[in-house]
Write a structure and sequence with these properties.
Layout: H1 2-30, H2 32-44, H3 48-60, H4 66-78, H5 82-95, H6 100-110, H7 124-133, H8 138-161, H9 165-198, E1 201-204, E2 208-212, E3 221-226, E4 230-237, E5 240-244, E6 250-254, E7 258-260
Antiparallel strand pairs: 1-4, 1-7, 2-3, 4-5, 5-6
Helix pairs in contact: 2-3, 3-4, 4-5, 5-6, 8-9
Amino acid sequence: MVMKTIYKKNRNRVFLVFLFLLSALRLQATDPDSLIIRANLFYTNQMYEQAAELYQQVIDTGLVAPELYYNLGNAYFKQHNIPMAILNYERALQLDPGNEDIKYNLELARTYVSDKIETLPRFFVVEWYHWFLERMSSDGWARFSIISFILGLLFLSFFVFSKRFIWRKTGFTLGIIILFFSVLSFFFAWQSRKILTAHDHAIVMQPAVTVKSSPDSNGTDLFVIHEGTKVTIVESQDNWTEIRLDDGSKGWLPAETITKI
């Protein structure tokens, strides 16, 4: 009886250990780092569909990074899925506006898009503003704002506590200038975050879409756009979305034909 009881206890213990190991393996299989490693291996071995699936699984866990969207875009580009490649390159660029690799691959993918839309010229001040805004991400501008704010206060402390005139003058001048850049960079951080969360741009996902004059299938046909084209969302009504192209053209199309960036 004693031996039998011990045997049952050992068997139960082995079963519990087996369940623990099985649970650990399952957790490891869905761990983001493990998924990324597996996805990279699939990509290296030219198994692009499997790589794309795993990169998307990582993103679905809530982990958001420009590198993830960039890799996902590359995986779709290798599959010649240009709309999905452009969509993910755009998402990567929103998170890291100054990344030259993302910009290059995005422009390369755009060469496969049928629609060649000319952008309306913008006032040079607006061009400068967007150029500065795209130098860093919203987090980068926020960090720069905090650092410059601390430096500005440090220089102003020379103005307050120093007894020498030259230090007081230098501290006040540099403090005001640096604080100005702190406020400006804070504004850029706010604008970048606003653009990131607005979701007012989208990519056409269907081979060809007829844009209508009204949110109705019986509306007048205005023009046709093709997959991969980037559009600006103006408003939504029921299952229709009003869009605007970079050349100023506007119209309505079915909401399911586009995917928001």
